[in-house]
Amino acid sequence: MKSFSAFVDKNARFIFPLPAVLAILVLIVAPVVTNFVLSLYDYFVGGRAVYIGLENYQRAFGDARVWNGVRNTFYFTFTAVPLQLVLGIAIATLFNRDFPGKGIARTVILLPMVATPVAIALIWALMFNPSLGVLNYFLESLGLPRSLWVAQSNLAIPSLVLVDTWQWSPMIALILLAAMQSVPAEHYEAARIDGASGWQSFWHITIPSIRSAIVVALILRAVDALKTFDIIYVITEGGPGIASETLNVLAFKTGFQFFHAGYAATLLIFLMFTVLGIAILLNVIRRRV
Amino acid sequence: MLRATLRMAILAAVALGLATASAQDFDWRRFEGTSIRFMMNQHPFTNWLQPNVQEFEALTGINVTLEVFPEDQFRQRRILEVSSAAPTLDGYMVMPGQVGAQYLGAGWMRYLDDFVADPTLTNPDLDLEDFFGGALGTFQAPDGLFGLPLQIESSVLFYRADLFEAAGLSGPPETMDELMAYAAALETDTVAGFAMRGRGAAATSQTVNLLYSFGGSWMDDAGNSALASPESIAAHEFYAELMRNYGPPGPANLHWAEVTSLYAQGQAAMIFDANVFRPIMEDPAQSIDVVRENTRYAPLPAGPAGSVPGVLVWGLSVNHASQNPEAAWYFIQWALSKESQESLLLFGVPAARASSWENEEFQATAPADWIEASQVSFERGQPDWNPPVIPVAEVRDAYGQAIVAALEGRDIAAALQRAATEVDQIVERSER
Amino acid sequence: MSALASQASQRESAAQARARAQRLKLLKNVGIAALIVLTLAIMLFPFYWMILTSLRSQVDNVSRVPVWFFTPTWENYQNVIARNNFLEFTWNSFVIAALSTGFGLVLGLPAAYSIARFKQEGLALAILVARLTPYITYLVPWYLAFRSLGLIDTYVALTLTHLIVGMPLIVWIMISFFENVPQDLEEAAFVDGATRMGAFWRVILPLSAPGIVAASILAFIFSWNQFLFSLVLSGPNTRPVPVAVFNFISYGQIDFGGLGAAAVLITLPVIILTLIIQRWIVTGLTMGAVKG
Predict the structure, then answer these.
(1) Are A82 and A128 within one domain?
(2) Which of A4, B160, B246, C187 is the most exposed place for a label (fewest CB within 10 A)?
(3) Phi, psi of A208 (to 5 degrees)
């Protein structure tokens, strides 16, 4: 017993993390490796499995639907994230002051990001309904024309971006708010004495001070937006047609509706490299900032 | 009144007599204490079945769990369990026209001929001959019988007599040209002239009616996709014009639930969808009064090639990996017995047994035009309401994209050509 | 006289200027207040609509012009709970979330401690990568593996997969907690003859209790909300609420009220838990990158 504790003490740096490392090896590393193997097969779940070399990759590069998925993934991400950043900064600025009910307000904006995504998505789907949904009622009340929202191809992704933005702008806001509150008040004081306007001190003091928080928020949001699944699958299932089908949704359908595990694995490898590549890229930028 | 009562009494006595007679030969309680699980589509048949299951449980002592899912998920869950040979799944609802080829090809079907041949397992009252030939036929593979039909279904036109009258229209449209003209006449700011499904893959089971009626087909003689044929292009051009001009907003989003909801809420003057949705239009919790009072039924209007609807057969099969296939077979026999099918038909679902349709109470209560429209459709119907290929889901998905393209005003011929090419590739890959 | 007058008028205009400045400030404050209220209204509206929908009858829910005032009905809730086994699904969700959080703590706490004490940044990064990789990447191999092991539709499969949601979160939140426990305390324990495991168990963990509570609740919420894994790996015996609610989408007609009621029921526990640990939500969502 004594010698066991001594052994543990001596090797604590290996023994303590061991269970977690094993879990990661089995649950994460093994599946990723499996995907590489699967991607070399024409594997129909419950049916044949034929080794086909790199054919899946060749097919993916020439597959218009894959490129549609890539385009939609980027379209969604690079519309949603900048929009959320702008709104996030605006909300953070708005909340970065004392006002009655500040605590409650901060709690309220937490709700969109913690509420169960499936429930949120279903409610938005009801609100989007072109004939019976409440959003069109609002548009009409404002004297605007009714919209088809997710029922029309070219509006499907913008509508989903709207949901994502509602859900996640508050997170950016809260990240930035934390950063803003750590900017020393003297900096603003000094600027005011120098005659700087509110806008100037925002631009020359606030933004530079929260620069690294902005980049962190961007990395987190970009990575999560690239792999958004729940709201897209629940609201549009990638439709109309394939108008809002992202790589993520396409891979899901390929694997679990069409049961082509090999081709799905190939698409997942694509997706994984895309997401990790962008994470690394943004991280490099972060080091420079 | 007295005569009716008397007749009921005689019928009851006869039924009782039959029951005791067969009970002597057939032991319903042989699998007492067994538990079985069936996976069901959220379908009117299931709505009928759920409250009646206790009857089977009391009769046999077999405990039944019904697992119910909306259709898309039902299919997904079913293939997950069937392909993984889940031993706890004993049976399920299935449309042979949809996945028959795939399931048979993969060896996932439990053939029932040994059960049928065994008088200790099969109730002598089963009477396979009583099922509509076309319906039973879909469950007969070269290697044997793999299920029994529970309903035969076809799409019919639902229309509002009051709106027709207000627009100066007399009976239902009989040709596709009339359908277009009527839709135009009925269209207002708040009521769509016509609605049918448009949600990609989910719409293909309805657009096939147009495809057939315009003379098109799924496959040409060489076994290639015929989606880009001139007939098919004409059918989809008609569909797009009808839906874009007189359909509800956002036609590419319409699944059957949206179509029936719009109609039940008085927001569409005509819809074309499965005849099994009649109960919705008669239910005060789901439909507004004017709809309940004024709904009429008619068969699919005729196109250049006549009125050729697809007919669709749902049935029950035993899971190949089931550990209690005999108990599952008992359940199927009970759920599809003459009495059950009659009760199902009275519930509003088009039963697959010919004898049920002769029931007097049914003849007296169901709208005559619905009976006629249904029977006419069954007569004219084409059983391949789905492309007769193994990777059906993938093929429907590819075709569904062309449907959305048509509804959104894109080049229909080009979209169909793309779909046809894709279908051929999918089929070719699946046959490798 | 004129000097006096000009002085007076100067005083007056100074007062006017002050008044104008005050008015401007008031105006600005009103504007800001209006913007804050608008922001909150937008954030809350879908929840408000969810509740409204859950309390209205089907006819009111599909009315072309929204019905804002009505007699609430509990029928939707009754239907959801009675007819659709909602309590069973809730129990499944609870079991899966509790088990995966429990295992997440057992695996994650020692790992986080080790990372904090021995500066194992590589390991921390590996765990972060696990969080950044799209979950669906793991799902196809998992599905094939669980299928061949006969583990589809078992708590085992769902707990293991949900572990991947909770454990990285626990590790990353706890690293900073453990870093903040003064090393002196631990060394004092060693002097008293404690082993490292003993010190971890009796000194470090009790001191980090608030962090552990926050991390556990977060891991629980994330598992509760998880949809993708459960969609593929659950079944009749283990189906959790998000998948059950998803089943409502084309349930007969579009059952607006039932959807609303189900959405309220699934969201309520999450909101209650959020109120308890709201300070930690952003920390958790950002994997500790931002301190709440």
Answers:
(1) yes
(2) A4
(3) -60, -35
> Does residue B3 register a pLDDT over 50?
no
Element (H, E) at A139: helix A134-141
Mapped onto helix, strand or coil, the DSSP state of residue B318 is: strand
Cis peptide before C182 (omega within 30 of 0): no
Nearest-neighbour CA in chain A from B173: distance (Å): 26
* Number of independent structural domains in chain A: 2
Average pLDDT on B88-109 reads 88
Chains touching C by CB (3 or more pairs below 8 Å): A, B
CA dihedral A224, A226, A232, A233 (to 10 degrees): -90
Q: What distance, in Å, lies between the first and last C-alpha atoms of chain A? A: 52
Judgement on whether residues A234 and A99 belong to the same structural domain of the protein: yes
Contact yes or no for A259 and B249 at CB 8 A: no
Right CATH for B154-310+388-430 from 3.40.50.1260, 3.40.190.10, 3.90.650.10, 3.20.20.100: 3.40.190.10
Statement to judge: residues C27 and C156 lie in one domain: no
The Cα B370–Cα B392 span in angstroms is 30
Mind listing the pLDDT tens digit for each residue in B399-426? 999 999 999 999 999 999 999 999 999 9
Are C156 and C97 within one domain?
Answer: yes
**C contacts of A122 (beta carbons < 8 Å):** 245-246, 248-249, 259, 262-263
pLDDT at A83 over 90: yes
A117 domain-assigned: yes
C-alpha C42/C-alpha A87 separation (Å) is: 13
Claim to verify: residue A137 and residue A239 sit in the same structural domain: yes
Q: What is the pTM of this model?
A: 0.84
Are A123 and A21 in the same domain? no
As a whole number, mean pLDDT of residues C62-77 equals: 79
Q: Which fold has domain B30-152+311-369?
A: D-Maltodextrin-Binding Protein; domain 2 (3.40.190)
B212 Cβ partners below 8 Å, 6+ apart? B305, B308, B309, B310, B382
Q: Assess whether C92 and C37 both reside in one domain.
A: no
Same domain, A266 and A170: yes
Give domain limits for chain B: 30-152+311-369, 154-310+388-430
Per-residue pLDDT reduced to its tens digit, C247-258: 765 444 567 888
Q: Which residues are paired to B274 by β-bridges?
A: B155
Decide if B286 touches C, using CB distance below 8 A: yes
pLDDT digits (tens, 9 = 90+) for B126-153: 999 888 877 888 898 888 999 999 998 8
DSSP helix/strand/coil, A260? strand
Rounded to an integer, the average pLDDT of A7-23 is 87
> Between residues B227 and C210, which one has the greater pLDDT?
B227
C26 and C89 belong to one structural domain: no
Q: Which residues of C touch A171 (CB under 8 A)?
A: 282, 285-286
The whole-angstrom distance between A157's CA and the closest CA on chain B is 14
* Structural domain for A25, as ranges: 2-38
Domain shared by A20 and A72, yes or no? no
- Residue B214's pLDDT is 96
For the stretch A222-272, pLDDT in tens is 989 998 999 999 999 998 999 999 999 999 999 988 888 999 999 999 999
Q: Are residues A169 and A275 in the same domain?
A: yes
Measured CA to CA, the distance from residue B155 to residue B275 in angstroms comes to: 5
Give pLDDT tens digits for C105-145: 999 999 999 998 888 888 888 888 888 888 999 999 999 89
* Cβ contact B404–A148 (<8 Å): no
